[in-house]
């Protein structure tokens, strides 16, 4: 499929052929959901914790005799039925990460790129470069492109001025090509790829 290449002033400066193997796949929401769950599970800290009976401070003495009191038998005041006692089967510190094969992860990234292209929310830029690191100037140029919520993916080396200027613009993210991922692509409304990013993504994903 063909796409128009634009510059930051929203002027058409050429055309580029997008590979159907990367940008022309059918949308599979099941695959995208699996990938997003995998990404979010990996970033969870997993440091939630409750105390078991061995970790509660207190005496190990039996509170009262087994028989003769008329009350229910008790072995420890650190048991869960008492105030300040243990938690049974509570959360423990652990990793939430799970496995997802490399082939599935690669297909999910191609599917996310294809989904944006199918929705008409893919813009190809000639280059993501700025003359100054000032946010105001870049924000005005992005406004001419109609970008209010966008992920901008450049080649492997980001333009330093562009990266700095975009930092303070709400809902605008900038990533190098090697950082392209399904979650960030889906969480922003528009996907913006530079010519370099398209070439490098196609070389990596074909």
From TrEMBL:
InterPro entries xref list: Ribosomal_uL4 (IPR002136), Ribosomal_uL4-like (IPR013005), Ribosomal_uL4_dom_sf (IPR023574)
Name under which the protein is recorded: Large ribosomal subunit protein uL4
SUPFAM superfamilies in the record: Ribosomal protein L4 (SSF52166)
Residue span of region Disordered: 47-77
PANTHER family: 50S RIBOSOMAL PROTEIN L4 (PTHR10746), LARGE RIBOSOMAL SUBUNIT PROTEIN UL4M (PTHR10746:SF6)
Keyword check for Flavoprotein: no
Record-level GO BP terms: translation
Protein purpose: One of the primary rRNA binding proteins, this protein initially binds near the 5'-end of the 23S rRNA. It is important during the early stages of 50S assembly. It makes multiple contacts with different domains of the 23S rRNA in the assembled 50S subunit and ribosome. Forms part of the polypeptide exit tunnel.
Quaternary state and interactors: Part of the 50S ribosomal subunit.
Recorded GO CC terms: ribonucleoprotein complex; ribosome
Family assignment from sequence similarity: Belongs to the universal ribosomal protein uL4 family.
MF annotations from Gene Ontology: rRNA binding; structural constituent of ribosome
Listed HAMAP family: Ribosomal_uL4_B
Annotated Polar residues bias: 56-68
Signal peptide span: none
Organism for this UniProt entry: Azospirillum humicireducens
Keywords assigned by UniProt, alphabetized: Ribonucleoprotein, Ribosomal protein, RNA-binding, rRNA-binding
């Amino acid at each position: 499929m063909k796409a128009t290449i634009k510059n930051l002033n929203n002027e058409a400066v050429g055309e580029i052929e997008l590979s159907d193997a990367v940008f022309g796949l059918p949308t599979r929401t099941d695959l995208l959901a699996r990938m997003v769950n995998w990404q979010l599970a990996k970033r969870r800290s997993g440091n939630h914790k409750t105390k078991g009976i061995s970790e509660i401070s207190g005496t190990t003495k039996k509170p009262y005799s087994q028989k003769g009191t008329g009350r229910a038998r008790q072995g420890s005041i650190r048991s869960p039925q008492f105030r300040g006692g243990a938690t049974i089967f509570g959360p423990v510190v652990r990793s939430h990460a799970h496995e997802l094969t490399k082939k599935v992860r690669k297909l999910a990234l191609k599917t996310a790129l294809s989904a944006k292209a199918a929705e008409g929310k893919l813009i190809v830029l000639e280059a993501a470069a700025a003359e100054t690191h000032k946010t105001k100037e870049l924000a005005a140029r992005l406004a001419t492109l109609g970008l209010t919520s966008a992920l901008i993916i450049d080649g492997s080396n980001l333009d330093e001025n562009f990266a700095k200027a975009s930092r303070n613009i709400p809902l605008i993210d900038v990533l190098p090509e090697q950082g392209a991922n399904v979650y960030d692509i889906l969480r922003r409304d528009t996907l913006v790829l530079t010519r370099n990013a398209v070439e490098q993504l196609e070389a990596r994903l074909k």
